[in-house]
């Protein structure tokens, strides 16, 4: 064990991981990535085929963490005001009254985000970056903690609008759930709908303590050689001819934040190279586009990148 043990306050997250694993079968690694994203103060993008459990994962985390939950179903006719809210005239007071939209929640599920038009997609930009929305000429703060889980269907499916790089960059991590293994699928077929079980989950964590916990995670120690390693990885993406462009400074900060959260979930008070390697695919793949024009970086691209950089 490197470093000193963390306080016992991380133990409720062990219960969250365990209970979520009973709902999202065979996906413990993906659940841990989602929690790391939340602890790092970022937002999560899940891309996969319909029916893989993306929505169930969001519901499960909201229930276990005690977060006020809101779901926005993105469609081609969805308008920005449908997300942020509108003002209506109150005849009693003879004044306009603002009706908050579904974005005013602690965990917002932006379901099938790439089925909405770019104009509507952009309504999330300010909320995700600044934790506030501007509507009717007035800026309003969003509740804390504020966490967006967006799902999107593969780009080749009919009726999708690809998210621009500026929107993708707002997501700290992008993951895929994929098909369950044979044992997990057997258990799923035997037990029936996991969504109903998710609705019956009891809260395992006090949501009010989450902002302080995120601050604690941000303070996890990263030694100088570890920072050198992160910087070397970032520089390698900029020099690699396989990519159109390398990772930005903001991507480097995202990588380090995610690695700190991964270390905290492992019960350590310092970041190791293993933590950086564990989160790099989820942090980098949607930020690196192939130079051959074949889409974003794949797992082999990231594996090659990791092999090219020496571990301190």
Tally of discrete structural domains: 2
CATH domain class of the largest domain? Alpha Beta
Structural class: alpha/beta
Instruction: Write out the CATH superfamily name of the largest domain.
Output: P-loop containing nucleotide triphosphate hydrolases
Quick one: biggest sheet? 5 strands, parallel
Shape: globular
Helix content: 40-55%
Report Rg.
20 Å
Mean pLDDT reading: 85
SSE run: HHEHEHEEEHHEEEHEHHHHHHH
- Per DSSP, what share of the residues sits in E-state strands of 2 or more residues? 5-15%
First CA to last CA: what distance? 18 Å
Briefly say what this structure is.
The chain has helices at 11-23, 28-39, 54-65, 80-84, 118-121, 123-130, 165-168, 182-191, 194-199, 210-218, 224-239, 249-265, 273-284, 299-308, and strands at residues 44-47, 69-73, 85-90, 95-100, 107-111, 132-135, 138-141, 147-152, 173-175.
What does this structure look like?
44% of the residues lie in helices and 14% in strands. The protein has 14 helices and 9 strands. Helix 1 (11-23) crosses helix 2 (28-39), helix 1 (11-23) packs antiparallel against helix 3 and helix 11 packs across helix 12 (249-265). It is globular and about 70 Å long. Strand 3 and strand 4 (95-100) form a beta hairpin. It has 312 residues and is of the alpha/beta class. The protein starts with 10 loop residues before the first helix and ends with a helix. The chain folds into 2 domains: 13-218, 3-Layer(aba) Sandwich (Rossmann fold), CATH 3.40.50.300; 220-312, Magnesium chelatase subunit I, C-Terminal domain (Helicase, Ruva Protein, domain 3), CATH 1.10.8.80. Mean pLDDT is 85; it is low at 1-6. It has a 5-stranded parallel sheet with strand order 2-5-8-1-9. The protein has a two-stranded antiparallel sheet with strand order 3-4. It has helices spanning 11-23, 28-39, 54-65, 80-84, 118-121, 123-130, 165-168, 182-191, 194-199, 210-218, 224-239, 249-265, 273-284, 299-308, and strands spanning 44-47, 69-73, 85-90, 95-100, 107-111, 132-135, 138-141, 147-152, 173-175. The longest helix is centred in the C-terminal third of the chain and has 17 residues, at 249-265.
């Amino acid at each position: 064990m490197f470093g000193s043990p963390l306080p016992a306050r991380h133990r409720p997250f062990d219960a969250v991981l365990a209970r979520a694993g009973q709902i999202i079968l065979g996906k413990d690694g993906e659940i841990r990535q989602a929690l790391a994203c939340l602890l790092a103060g970022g937002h999560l993008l899940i891309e996969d085929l319909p029916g893989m459990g993306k929505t169930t994962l969001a519901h499960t985390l909201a229930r276990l963490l005690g977060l006020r939950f809101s779901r926005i179903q993105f469609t081609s006719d969805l308008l920005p005001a449908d997300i942020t809210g509108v003002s209506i005239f109150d005849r009693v007071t003879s004044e306009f009254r603002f009706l908050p939209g579904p974005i005013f929640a602690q965990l917002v599920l932006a379901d099938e985000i790439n089925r909405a038009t770019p104009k509507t997609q952009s309504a999330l930009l300010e909320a995700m970056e600044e934790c506030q929305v501007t509507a009717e000429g007035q800026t309003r703060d969003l509740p804390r903690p504020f966490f967006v889980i967006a799902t999107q269907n593969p780009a080749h499916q009919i009726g999708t609008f690809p998210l621009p790089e500026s929107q993708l960059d707002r997501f700290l991590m992008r993951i895929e759930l994929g098909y369950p293994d044979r044992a997990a699928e057997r258990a799923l077929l035997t037990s029936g709908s996991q969504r109903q079980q998710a609705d019956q989950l009891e809260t395992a964590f006090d949501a009010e303590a989450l902002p302080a916990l995120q601050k604690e995670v941000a303070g996890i120690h990263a030694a100088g050689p570890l920072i050198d390693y992160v910087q070397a990885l970032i520089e390698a993406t900029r020099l690699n001819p396989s990519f159109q462009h390398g990772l930005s400074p903001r991507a480097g900060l995202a990588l380090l934040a995610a690695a700190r959260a991964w270390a905290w979930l492992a019960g350590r008070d310092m970041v190791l190279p293993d933590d950086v390697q564990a989160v790099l695919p989820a942090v980098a793949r949607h930020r690196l586009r192939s130079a051959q024009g074949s889409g974003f970086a794949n797992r082999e691209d990231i594996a090659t990148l990791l092999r090219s950089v020496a571990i301190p």
